[in-house]
Each structure stands twice: as C-alpha cells, then as structure tokens.
Design a protein that fits this description.
The protein is mainly α. It is built from eight helices and five strands. The relative contact order is 0.06.
C-alpha cells in the first residue's frame, strides 16, 4: 500500500475532514527495526493511522528532530549545511575536495589484446564494427559514444564533409 491513501475521512490527530489521507506508522519504522520488530508487525493495521498531510508532516518533523537529538555535528559540517539550505554555492576549495579523481583503466598490452582475440576466436565470435569500436574505446579509456562521434567526424573528413555515419 502506498504512503498516500485514496481514502477520504477524518484525520486521526486533528479531526479535520480531508479528501486524501496519508498512511503513518504510529511506531516509526526505524524505531521498530531497532526494537526487532518484523516487517509484518511494522506494517500491521494496529501500527497504521491515517493522517492529513499537515499532521503527517508535523509528526515526521518531530520524529526526525528526536532521532537527531544529541548528534554531534562539526562546525564545518554545520556551515556547509547552512550554506546549502540558503542556496549558497560551495567554495572552490570545498568543490575541489568533493570532486572524485577520474580513474582511467590501465592501457592494454599487445599480449592482452592477443589473448582477447584468441579467446573470441575460440568461442566462435567474430569482431563486428561495433564490438571493434567498443574494444578500441575501452583501450583508449573513452566512452563508446565518444569514440563513435570521433569515427563519424573522421569519416566526414575523408568523404569530403559528406554526412556519413556508419552504424
């Protein structure tokens, strides 16, 4: 059953009539997991109540605040979170820390390429244009789509700027 219920009715918490009510777990799922409850117990009808969107949001906000109470957050993290909430951009130094270095695969040796070709021949596989291009792109450490664009550009140069793309 989804979080939203198509049932209209009175909110259990505030008593207001709503056309749409949301399912809410009386004992939150994360607490039920810590208590060792099974999924059947967590989602049992006795642990479900129908709340309006406003009450559900208020209850969730209180639960999240209680779950995070006493959590130690460094001053740096607090500053970053505040900046994100205000819509400010990260400093260049922070962005540099967040960037992951690109790791290209090691170049294949001639012996490695020969082993791949031998195994393909032994399995009865032949090189199609696409499989050859994929292998070439992998060897160069570039995406296959980029290798196709480069190949198309070279073909256009060879054909005198005729738009020709080999598929």
């Amino acid at each position: 059953m989804s979080r939203r219920s198509s049932r209209a009715g009175f909110c259990v918490k505030c008593g207001t009539w709503r056309d749409q009510l949301q399912r809410d777990h009386i004992v939150p799922k994360h607490i039920a997991r810590r208590l060792g409850w099974l999924k059947e117990q967590t989602d049992a009808p006795g642990n479900i109540q129908l709340l309006c969107a406003n009450c559900h949001e208020d209850k969730t906000r209180v639960e999240v605040a209680a779950a995070n109470a006493g959590r130690v957050v460094s001053a740096e993290t607090r500053t970053k979170l505040s900046a994100v909430q205000l819509g400010l951009k990260h400093s260049e130094a922070t962005r540099a820390k967040m960037r992951r270095p690109h790791r290209s695969p090691p170049p294949r040796t001639a012996e490695h390429r020969a082993n791949i070709a031998a195994s393909r021949r032994a399995n009865g596989k032949t090189w199609t244009v696409a499989s050859r291009e994929k292998a070439r792109a992998s060897h160069l450490g570039v995406p296959y789509s980029f290798a196709r664009r480069v190949r198309a550009f070279i073909k256009r140069q060879e054909q005198g700027d005729k738009l020709w793309l080999e598929m």
